Amino acid sequence: MLYDRWRSQVRACPDQLAVVDFGLRRRWTFQQLADAAEADSKPDSVIHYPQGVSSDFIVEVLRAWRKRGVVCPLELGQTRPELSSLALPEIVHLKTTSATTGNPRLIAFKASQLIADGENIVQTMGLRPEWPNLGIISLAHSYGFSNLVLPLLLHGIPLILVGSTLPEAVRAAAAGQEGVTLAAVPALWQAWLDAKCIPANVRLAISAGAALPLGFEQTVFESCGVKIHNFYGSSECGGIAYDRTTVPRTDSSLAGTALEGVKLSVADDGCIEVRSSAVAETYWPQASPELGNGVFRTNDVGEISGGSLYLKGRAGDQINIAGRKVLPEAIEAVLAEHPQVRACLAFGVPSNDAHRGETIVACVAGKSPQLGQSLKQFALTHLPAWQVPRDWWFVDTLDVNERGKLSRAEWRQRYLDHARGGSPLRISSARSTT
Predict the structure, then answer these.
(1) What pLDDT digit, counting tens, does each position of 5-24 carry?
(2) What's 2-313's CATH class?
(3) Burial 30-61 (b: 16+ CB within 10 A, else e)
(4) pTM for this predicted structure
(5) What is the pLDDT at residue 99?
(6) To bridge 233 with a disulfide, which of 184, 239, 303, 426 should be the other Cys (CB 3.0-4.6 Å)?
(7) Count of C-beta atoms within a 10 Å radius of residue 274
């Protein structure tokens, strides 16, 4: 099914440019990509593991589709999962979830589910051939595969593989195009803004993977004339919600409205449920009631009002302060509005006071070394006293993980590792960098 769709795309525009690969210094038409996929002398394989951010990734996906194999994209350096016992009929694609111990869990998709995800994204976002995608984000991650690979192979949206996130590389890749679509994560958007290199010909700007601060969104809009569209999705079901508006949001919790082909509801526990033809078939090796039969039950707490989805946080991330619960996202949204805050995370750690439960920690990357006291006062005037962080950890930068996300769990563990080493990280302490 997938390869037939691809061949139809090739017949429709064989000589049109499909991929520009700056890293390999190659340009491919749709026909040239098709020829490369069919010029494979390797023995047939049931599982294909495309890796990297080059056109080789694209060609390997096409070879897997042609041989009716299973595609299991991997990040560079990622260990191949053990799939010798895999027996899932009609499954053509496996996404890997992150795992701290043992083998990661896999998410299995049929061809029709991948096709539905690509169609939902293209229709909702208005992706078009005259605005090629700039390929910055990982092709192996769900975000990149759904927004870059599927639109290219199933809808003829050209892909320019930049090969670097450096500002000058992005600017050079966009040069010469009438318009481009640029999908990235907030940390990259921030870096490009700081370097004053957001291409002037960006016609569609998309951000996913982490919260997009309102102040930053407004700054980009005012300084560059670019509206960054917030995008919310999940590996288990692809795209979920998208901010279709043409002006900056006024509520940081607004994720957008449901993508075309997607229906959203709120379960009894407040978590968002997603229904669409793009929802994965199952987890592997162990199925779960949260996923299957066209429904994915997320761990995200949210509300639906006026057709729009508002995300309040993740159910498992709630911080317990003497019996009262607060979502870290609520604290982060306030701190992010301070003009000297570049990025921040909030999380709970065990308190020395058994009656208190947890202590709130704020991990902050600021623009000024003197941010400490002013930020604490800012928090006191914008948050209830019990929600103001007691411990503050100021770092030079909040690094994203290999999936381009800020991991609250990873930074919480770093904080605890520092604390165990006897290094105080409170607001009055010296600046620390991890």
Answers:
(1) 999 999 999 999 999 999 88
(2) alpha beta
(3) bebbbebbeeeeeeeeeebbbbbbbbbbbbbb
(4) 0.81
(5) 47
(6) 239
(7) 27
